[in-house]
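Sorry to interrupt, but I need a hand with the structure work. Leave the record below and I will have a look:
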Amino acid sequence: MNYYRGINSNDYGPLPFATNVEQEAKRNQSFRTALWTGSNLQMTVMCIPARGETGLEIHRDTDQLVSVEEGQGLVKIGNYKERLDFQQHLCAGDSVFIPAGVWYNIINAGKSPLRLSSVYAPPAHSRGTVHRTKADDRGIC
């Protein structure tokens, strides 16, 4: 149930907002969509196609919580992009905490889309961000 809608955007922040995140993630067809952006926190929903991945990235000043809403994935994390020492399989209901300043990649390990929600603190993307495909995402944050 959505109580407030952001003005001229699919991003509902910074107004108060209540919704079912799992349903929002399952409805999302874009690689990344900013669902709510405030001053200190942001939530996006993501759709990673079969055999797809987020791509190796780092958020130097942003902690992240990624939750699997649907599908199966593999997360790889490390201090160096050439050495991702931490690896964990993920399925619906699982979450992974990714500290600022580490390299990571989330890979779709299933045959259907991997649907994620991701909380960034502080925000990592501009308010209202929509990356329809992975190619629309431009680099390191």
